[in-house]
Amino acid sequence: MSRQWLSARERSNIFAIRVLVWIALSLGRPVARAVLIPVAAYYLIFDARARQASQDYLQRVLRRKPSLREVFRHLHTFATVALDRVYFLSDRWSMFDIRLHGEERLIEQLKNNKGCFLVGAHIGSFEVLRSIGRRRQVTVNLVMFEENANRVARVTRAINPALEDDVIALGTPDSMLRVMEQLDKGAWVGMLADRAISEGGTVAVPFLGATALFPAAPFRVFALTGRDVILMLGVYRGANRYDLHFETLVEAPVLPRAERDQIVERWIRLYASRLEYYCRAEPFNWFNFYDFWSSDDKVG
Fold first, then answer.
1. Which of 33, 68, 137, 152 has its CA at a distance of 20 to 30 angstroms from the CA of residue 107?
2. Which pLDDT does position 103 carry in this prediction?
3. Can you give the residue range of the structural domain that contains 162?
């Protein structure tokens, strides 16, 4: 791929984002949601990679071959969550019915003025957490690998420039310093842990009946902070409802050098098992539209 092509694609994406933002904020959510129907249909028909990835995942999670209607529903749910992100980033969260489960875990952290690490996944919306944080006057930072961080920062800048600094890029000289500073201030720091950038630094664990590679880096970051790690998933339940689930994943993690690999694998297995639980409960909420499983584990 040439840099020129990537640059043109990036410009096209930014333009599409701005159009979506204008439709969402100027014409309202009902009109914007109507626009999503042909958008999801387009991807169903013309994006073979997304369609195949959806079919593969749905066959695993539903334990049967999915219908085209179900693949469309999966793509449409993703598009809906992406649209709602515009409203969450624009502080219009009052238009949503947000229900909290396990909130006492965060309340305890707030009472002690302790920042905590929130591990999420590409399930539902992470942005719904920002709305809860702003209600409680707590900063919510998202830690990402540099390339993804730059992409998210551009999207955030197009919607709400004031939140751009809440994205922390890993791999820079001061990235961990920024993470620790935010935690020391009592902020919530979140990271999505279900997407590997490459096969390097991954751990193979069971997930939805086959072996999948999960990145080890997020769990090593957790250990460096020494803070409680809380699983957070903002599940979309249809209409204007989101259910925010919190549960303690690891308490004050410690990673002795001699046992590092075994402990990281244990944490990843626990994370993958909880991720599988929520995927089974709300199968159309998981949004990793690529070949998540190894080629040897294709569903027949």
1. 152
2. 83
3. 3-297
